[in-house]
Amino acid sequence: MSRGKESSFLSGKAIYFITMIILTLGFVALLALHCILRNDSYSIIFLFLTMLLSFAINLLYDKFGFYASFALNFIQSMIYIYEIATQGKETSRVLLVGTFLIMIINLALQFYRVRILSQATNEREKNKKLRSDEISRSLEQDMNDRPSLITNYTNATKNGSTVYDYSVMPHLDPLTTLPGRDMVRDKIDRLIMGSTGSAKNDNTSYTTDSKFLVIYLSVDNASKLADCTGNCNMDLFIQNISHRLREACDPSDMLARSNDAQFIILSKRILPEDKLEAYVEKLTNRILRALRAGLDSLPAVISYGTASYPSQGRDGGSLINYAEMNRTVCYDNSDKVSYPAAAGSKPAVKASVSSQDSFSFEGMSRDQIIAVFEEAISTGNLYMSYQPYYTNERKLKGIEAFLRLRKGNELVPPSIFLAAAEHAGYMNRISSFSLEEAFGVIARANEKQGELSLNFNISASQLSLPDFISQFNNAVSNSGASIANLVLDVPEATLLSEMDSIRNTIEKLSGMGVRMALNNFGSGYSSFNTIPLLPISVVKLDPSFTANIPTRADVRILSSSVISVLHDIDIGVCATGIENADQYNYLAGAGCDYFQGTYMSEEVRGDRFIASLS
Questions:
Q1: What is the model's pTM?
Q2: 57 Cβ contact list (under 8 Å, min separation 6)
Q3: Domains along the chain?
Q4: Is the pLDDT of residue 406 over 80?
């Protein structure tokens, strides 16, 4: 079992205990020398040195250090009392008085430290509340001074351009009243089918003359901004961003909100590189203005990516996914300022780039994409990988299954090859393959340990398949797996953007007794809103959340609160991305139920996992 990065452990709690032991042993050694040498001159020096060590232990190790130093001084005083009683030494009387003074000073130091820390904490909380109230007033005033955010989409013709009626369509984002991800995807599909008749069922490359551009624009550190401003204030920031982006977008473009502070712009114009950069810089500047709070500006990390039809996708889902995956940072002042920061910095927009060495499905026809997958299946380069996860007592609880595609020495990101499979009409085959493989492994594992569970990552594309329930039942039947040991991991983003299209499938699976877990919890700031949408038995903390636990006190407090709240409603918590002992020890102490990550175990193939059970 891998134990992760030992250097992280040595730099944390190990050094804490080692230095404590060294100081304590040094104190004991001085007392021993005093007893052995019995020299009055040395005794005064020993008292001075033990005083320094006592103060060091008290000041360096908080409450525990105070208790330890007090205990050591008490032992020291007992030695001097014994010398006075048996030998009547005057020097011992002086040393005893000095020891009592040291104990009194340590007590005073502890008292004032606790008092100062309490005052500092109260002051920090007071300033945080005042700052939050100031942000709320500033944002609300800004919103009141501007036109209403509520948008009425009506059938009309304006300046020769059609304004489509979105009021009769689902998937409007309730926070911003912008179209949601599903709506813009449907709009793209209608545009494509209007020019080609069908985009998914032919065997040709992307040859249609109709062209348009998808821009994916994201404030990547939105969750961190929510931490320092409060979730309610973050809602106001996002409303402000959406309003300013709507004003800045070209009138012929369609603006939609994907999730969190991520937006999609559908443009019927194919812009040259210089004009695209200027357009994105304009949009980025509007976001930065929206992130103003009074006289300050929040530290922002803004990225964007583009995808053009027909060269980089031929349906709405793949175009949006490609633009999202192709993002590059165009503005980043997070490493230059801390919140609150002075405003006035100007974004420098960079062109979106992608690695020339990375495998890409770009430009491939449907037949070519399918051939790639068929070859990968036959050669074993499309396979399932499994990462074990453990209970609080480090007992093996189960495994999580991941679908992997290898091209040469490179692992292709799942978001890329799944998008390619979707627009090539190959998702049925991918779904059937992954279910059969994963369920077969857990069935074999349960022959050795019947209580082990399988967490299976499920995508919106799979849940949207018309025959997914049949695939699921066939995989269960053919593998002999027990439904009681199967857990479907549904990503948080899927619930936010795809819930309407997958609700029926989820209800059927739940009726069959299939358990579900909410994946990627903590990657967005509104995660609690998604919990009532599913029959969730486990919530999985996202690695981006758990990674900050050793270094950020606010994340530690938040994680403890989240675990407590979820336990109150009978939902288990699994921490993913655990890479070191500090993360594990804190979350274990906070009551986290399950742990998964490289600190516990690396990913392994199915056969290797089965063999490890022996």
A1: 0.46
A2: 20, 23, 24, 27, 65, 68, 69, 72
A3: 6-118 (no CATH), 146-342 (3.30.70.270), 377-613 (3.20.20.450)
A4: yes
